[in-house]
């Protein structure tokens, strides 16, 4: 009563606080601001903002992920560490591929743009077709293609970025997948098979890719499984065998 002006001022501030959302505090806003400023400046904030049908990113360029100009000052090993550290915290597949190896994969992909991959399951194998589209490699299950034809949606996409290939000698790779059909270790198995079949030094292994693309009538599904088992990749997804010994 003695200071009506002070009273009105306090009431106005009280009403402002009531209007603020639950959990709001200036300290919270400050912490949030500092966290945003502390994020790695090597990576762009626009990752995954444009999505296409099936939830995959449209126009997923390297610039939409990485600050390319900034990392150009880094060595190949430093870029590799930055890339691996960033994606290791994410539920996805990623890699840094030596330029020579990618060059071999890329040349062969031009001649043989598709291949049949085998993914180990609890009982038997599930086959996936991998189809190159530019530097993107799209995977979808064989049963999807058999039932939906050319409209079969991608279930995994590997994105390869050769922008640093000449200058740094590396090609960056990351992926997106449909989690309803694949989990990370299954997607990783398919990604590993790309190098197994397209970057191999064994003529017999790459011959399977050539046969699938150019002599399909001679192609044998079991040959892929045999190659996969021989490489050891086929055993990685198998559950451990329980011994019957008593």
List the helices and strands and how they pair.
Elements: H1 4-19, H2 26-37, H3 68-71, H4 76-88, E1 94-98, H5 99-111, E2 114-120, E3 125-133, E4 136-141, H6 142-148, E5 156-161, H7 165-168, E6 170-177, H8 184-198, H9 203-214, H10 221-231, H11 233-236
Antiparallel strand pairs: 1-6, 2-3, 3-4, 4-5, 5-6
Structural summary, described in words:
- There is one protein chain.
- The protein is of the alpha+beta class and 246 residues long.
- The protein has a domain at 67-233.
- Helix content is 45%, strand content 17%.
- The protein has helices at 4-19, 26-37, 68-71, 76-88, 99-111, 142-148, 165-168, 184-198, 203-214, 221-231, 233-236, and strands spanning 94-98, 114-120, 125-133, 136-141, 156-161, 170-177.
- It has a 6-stranded antiparallel beta sheet with strand order 1-6-5-4-3-2.
- The protein is globular and about 100 Å long.
- The termini are far apart.
Keywords:
alpha+beta; 45% helix; disordered C terminus; globular; six-stranded antiparallel beta sheet; 246 residues; transit peptide
Query: What is the string of helix and strand elements?
Result: HHHHEHEEEHEHEHHHH
Count of alpha/pi helices: 11
Subunit arrangement of the protein? single chain
What is the molecular shape? globular
Measured distance between first and last alpha carbons: 90 Å
Kindly estimate the percentage of residues that lie in beta strands according to DSSP.
15-25%
Low-confidence stretches: 20-28, 30-40, 45-53, 238-246
Q: Average pLDDT, to the nearest integer?
A: 81
Radius of gyration: 25 Å
**Class by alpha and beta content:** alpha+beta
GO biological process, one term: mitochondrial proton-transporting ATP synthase complex assembly
Family: Belongs to the ATP11 family.
Subcellular location: Mitochondrion
InterPro entries: ATP11 (IPR010591)
